[in-house]
Please model this.
Amino acid sequence: MYETWLATAVEEARAGLAEGGIPIGAALYGADGTVLGRGHNRRVQDGDPSMHAETAAFRAAGRQRTYRGTTMVTTFSPCWYCSGLVRQFGISRVVIGEAVTFHGGHDWLAECGVEIVLLDDGECRSLMRDFIEANPELWNEDIGDSDD
Model:
């Protein structure tokens, strides 16, 4: 099930890359397994530093009465900003494609009671490693590590 859900996030990551953006994708799934929303990092495309993949999926899901029982699936370990979103709204589980390239806030989420499923997906790793190698300045900007 999680691998199938991750495929949705990978599709989004590839769409972002094709648009000239950062290849990170996400999807928010309901407790019943339906996709509530999906999206990809659009920081570059929209000129909006807050439009991370998880944020895009969350916004696409629209207003929900509760987020308990929902699962955020992301190709990449969520940064602190996106980890805060998960915590703020009580998303129950985060499925992560890979956390080798970047280790975000998922340990903190686990300490806060969020279920973390780390898939260690090779395709997700390759997408990010290739992107970072080709675009180090853009990557550093995305993670807030720019010298400018």
In short: The chain has a mean pLDDT of 94. The first strand starts at residue 25 and ends at 29.
